[in-house]
Predict the structure.
Amino acid sequence: MKIGPLEVIICAFPKPAIGANVIKALSETVKSGAIALADMVLVSRDRAGAVHVRDLHDGLPAAWSGLIRDARPMTLLSDADIAVAAETIGNNETALVAVVEHRWAHRLSEEVRRSGGVTALQARIPDAEAVLALEADGVTTT
């Protein structure tokens, strides 16, 4: 079975629900085949500060159904991932924690493995840093 590379992504939202446009954009990206969701949870903090974690089996809204690669429960997300997500949100806020499979990179990953190579580093450059670097080079980003 081909899988990977995988990446954990945490997106924090300053409200208790994730907007329909975010769900739609994620759905379109999954349907395009560029990525697959290997695991996903929503982490929310209620008004009193209590943290709640929900996955697809905990009654997430129907808009999330069909986005996960395999409907069986996954164990790719760790307690540490959930803790980081919980730390990024305040009361009455929500975070989406997703394990994204970069399907566009399947062939490259396969050829690297086949040639005896390994991925020595995989790092994401935050959007804000990329924009600053481009603007420093005189590139307009808007």
User: Anything to note?
Assistant: Residues 6-117 form one domain. The longest strand covers residues 35-45. Residues 42 and 135 are 34 Å apart (CA to CA).
